[in-house]
Amino acid sequence: MSASGGTKAIVAALGANLAIAVSKFVAFAFSGSSSMLAEGVHSLADSGNQALLLVGGKKAQREATPQHPFGYGRERYIYAFLVSIVLFSVGGMFAIYEGYEKIKHPHELEHWYWPVGVLVFAIIAEGFSFRTAIKESNTLRGALSWKEFVRRAKAPELPVVLLEDLGALVGLILALGGVGLALATGDGVWDGIGTLCIGILLVLIALVLAAETKSLLLGESAGLDEVKKIEAAIVDGSTVTSVIHMRTLHLGPEELLVAAKIAVQHDDTATEVATAINAAESRIREAVPIARVIYLEPDIYSESEAEKGADPEAAPGGPAQAPAGH
User: Fold this and answer.
1) What is the pLDDT of residue 286?
2) Phi and psi angles of residue 63, each rounded to the nearest 5 degrees, phi first
3) How far is CA 181 from the centre of its chain?
4) pLDDT, tens digit, for every residue of 237-248?
5) N or C: which terminal CB in the chain sees fewer CB atoms within 10 Å?
6) What is the distance between the alpha carbons of residues 50 and 47, in angstroms, rounded to a whole number?
């Protein structure tokens, strides 16, 4: 669902941004507004960003190979990180430069109706794109706030489109304000100030996107709800008595690795343990379908070891979640 919803939001944003970019460059050619030039570059950069997200989604679907045994799911994270770089450099820094130049060398706007008309059209088009992204995100967001959704989402496409569209709408309002003040006062400095504000806004959004996608690239664990479901699915109460410790890692937005040491009875046979592990893997996949790669290591439960608490050397980085027992 997250993949299809993300693709729909990306395509809507791509179509809107291409149309808006063309109209902004036309308005810049007739009016000389630096806000229009900065906004045109911003929309062109956004179009490229959406193309990057589509390419990342396509590449992530490739089958695993001996060289990449866990597949290519993280391609989506890599391309989302590239989006933040493009937004920072091509969008934000260019707008800051244009704003500075306009403030330093202001000139009066010509054919004011071009930028005003384009900005109104762009606000409507971006509003449609933003509405699509919100609608698709709501199917996945549940009870999470928008801030929590952006921070916790494992699929990067929807948060990226949401932040891009939000930045575009606020940027358009800033551009409209800059153009309006420049027309009202006859001072082109206001157009430059509007452009400068757009650049600062885009840089801030790019930094947020970079921080979130960096976390995904480093590797994030499953959510707490999924961890609880996996732990409950592992234990059968007879052969598998508890989870000693467990680690989870997202190999991609819809692919989860689960590695756990499980407690079994000391008198269980190898056949009984193997059968219990196979059954536990089936229960895990039923409870959390994105758990594709599962490794379960049996161990004998020891009360004396359990009293010592969690072993910080049990896995690299120490325990990610509180152990169920040992």
Assistant:
1) 94
2) -70, 155
3) 36
4) 788 888 888 999
5) N
6) 5
- Spatial distance between the Cα atoms of 62 and 49, rounded to a whole number of angstroms: 21
What does the pLDDT look like over 215-270, one tens digit per residue?
Answer: 888 888 888 889 999 999 999 878 888 888 899 999 888 889 999 999 888 778 88
Ramachandran quadrant class, 301 (left: phi over 0; alpha: psi -120 to 50; beta: rest): beta
- C-alpha angle 242/248/253, rounded to 5°? 140
Spatial distance between the Cα atoms of 143 and 195, rounded to a whole number of angstroms: 37
Q: Check pLDDT > 70 for residue 302.
A: no
Residue 268, classed as helix, strand or coil, is: coil
Residue 242: in which H helix or E strand, if any? Answer: strand 240-252
Would you list the DSSP string of 290-309? Answer: TEEEEEEEEEE--HHHHHH-
Specify whether the CB–CB gap between 33 and 94 falls below 8 A: no
Residue of 126, 168, 147 whose CA lies nearest to 9: 126
CA pair distance 12, 254, nearest whole angstrom? 22
- For the chain, the 3-state helix, strand and coil shares in percent, each to the nearest 5, are 65, 10, 25
The pTM of the full predicted model, rounded to 2 decimals, is: 0.73
Give the pLDDT confidence of 141-151 residue by residue, as tens digits: 878 888 888 88
Which pair of structure tokens corresponds to residue 88? 């920072």
Most distant CA atoms of the chain, gap in Å: 89
